[in-house]
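4.2 Preliminary Data

To establish feasibility before requesting continued support, the project team ran the inverse folding procedure on a target of 112 residues. The structure was first converted into the token representation described in Section 3, and no sequence information of any kind was made available to the design step. The complete token record follows.
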């Protein structure tokens, strides 16, 4: 359905002649060669610029590159001392928890 809406795939001779006729009406027969000449110059400039870019790229590829330098591996130092045998385990810091309000508890009423 989309193909029939945009005429993709159904360009025939009739459609091409209709488009050519509309272009001639819009621009005039004298300006069409000028338009195509300008388009040709634009394409030529684009190709020249891309060729210049391609000629610069092999210069960079041919140069040997040094391998990336990686710092030597250093084992991290422990943050705390090693646990002593027979000693009680240390508790870490725990954030205090606020008391929970229970609306059904008569002893725990909100303060106003």
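Position-by-position output of the design step:
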């Amino acid at each position: 359905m989309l193909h029939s809406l945009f005429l993709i795939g159904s360009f025939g001779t009739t459609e091409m002649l209709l488009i050519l006729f509309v272009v001639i009406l819009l621009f005039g027969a004298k300006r069409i060669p000028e338009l195509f000449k300008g388009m040709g110059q634009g394409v030529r400039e684009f190709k020249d610029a891309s060729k210049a870019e391609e000629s610069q790229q092999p210069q960079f590829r041919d140069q040997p590159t040094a391998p990336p330098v990686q710092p030597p591996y250093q084992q991290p130092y422990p943050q705390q001392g090693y646990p002593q045998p027979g000693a009680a385990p240390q508790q870490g810091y725990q954030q205090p928890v606020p008391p929970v309000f229970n609306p059904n508890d008569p002893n725990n009423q909100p303060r106003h």
